[in-house]
Amino acid sequence: MAKSKFEYVRTFEKEDRCLQNCWIVVRVDGKAFHKFSEIHEFEKPNDVGGLKLMTRSAVNVMCEFRDIVIAFGHSDEYSFVFRKDTSLFNRRGEKLMSLVSSLFSSSYVFYWNEYFKQKKLLYAPSFDARIVLYPTDDNLRDYMSWRQADVHVNNLYNTCFWSLVNKGGLTNSEAEKTLRGTLASQKNEILFQEFNINYNNEPEMFRKGTTLIRKFMKFPNENESRLVICPYYGDIIKNKFWEENIEILLMKSAPAELYKEDIEFYEGKNKISLLK
């Protein structure tokens, strides 16, 4: 590039590089999503199509950034964990944050019609992002546990709130007043006694969020295993998950398999090829 007298303005740019030897977490969060979900008439308390669209967008981010070892999402947010020693974009925080949030936002719009075939997207949603560094494996696990615990707290409240509104005939303000100061046990009791809902039988995707991990899977009539992105809806707070998926914390570099031309998203019998 030819130099000019104006090039000095580049000296004003500031590179904010993430500290070495730390897990990098980028969390995207919907901006004014309460309004967005109301205008687009999302089902309350959980819209399955909306949740699956969030996950589809997150899968697209994981396919683009192969150094992401795990992702977790619920409602209108998703957290992406980059491996501890990633050198992607020289660990420039603003670069990672802006690219993840922009790709997630554009993916959400791009895949909208796959999940809402009869519902027009009335305006483009936006997602903000933040970046946080965690120096130890325990710090990272505590972060993931915090996000999953948040799912439980919010979903139990919302399930109870919208049951009171949609089935109990209360107004929003009346339902809010009824639940004010109640404990989890009391909310469970309201659901069971008044609406015959056993909260523990609600779908795990609603109660525990969606965790995305990379796994080698062998499919029928195939000799070699393939690397796929799998959703997991169980507990990630207890040790069992981390013991069964020990490679997440041990991964020091991205395996060569991550750089093959296609990665697949596998959910039960549904398999989507993601060509790169």
Automatic annotation (TrEMBL):
Keyword vocabulary terms for this entry: GTP-binding, Magnesium, Metal-binding, Nucleotide-binding, Nucleotidyltransferase, Transferase, tRNA processing
GO molecular function: GTP binding; magnesium ion binding; tRNA guanylyltransferase activity
Cofactor note: Binds 2 magnesium ions per subunit.
Catalysed reaction, written as an equation: a 5'-end ribonucleotide-tRNA(His) + GTP + ATP + H2O = a 5'-end phospho-guanosine-ribonucleotide-tRNA(His) + AMP + 2 diphosphate + H(+)
Cofactor: Mg(2+)
First-tier enzyme category under EC: transferase
InterPro entries reported for this sequence: Thg1_C_dom, tRNAHis_GuaTrfase_cat, tRNAHis_GuaTrfase_Thg1, tRNAHis_GuaTrfase_Thg1_sf
Residues given in the record as GTP binding sites: D29, G30, K31, A32, F33, H34, S75, D76
Binding site for Mg(2+) 2: D29, D76
Statement: the UniProt record of this protein carries the keyword Nucleotidyltransferase: yes
Family the entry assigns: Belongs to the tRNA(His) guanylyltransferase family.
Role, per record: Adds a GMP to the 5'-end of tRNA(His) after transcription and RNase P cleavage. This step is essential for proper recognition of the tRNA and for the fidelity of protein synthesis. Also functions as a guanyl-nucleotide exchange factor/GEF for the MFN1 and MFN2 mitofusins thereby regulating mitochondrial fusion. By regulating both mitochondrial dynamics and bioenergetic function, it contributes to cell survival following oxidative stress.
Protein name in the entry: tRNA(His) guanylyltransferase
Lineage summary: Eukaryota, Metazoa, Ecdysozoa, Arthropoda, Hexapoda
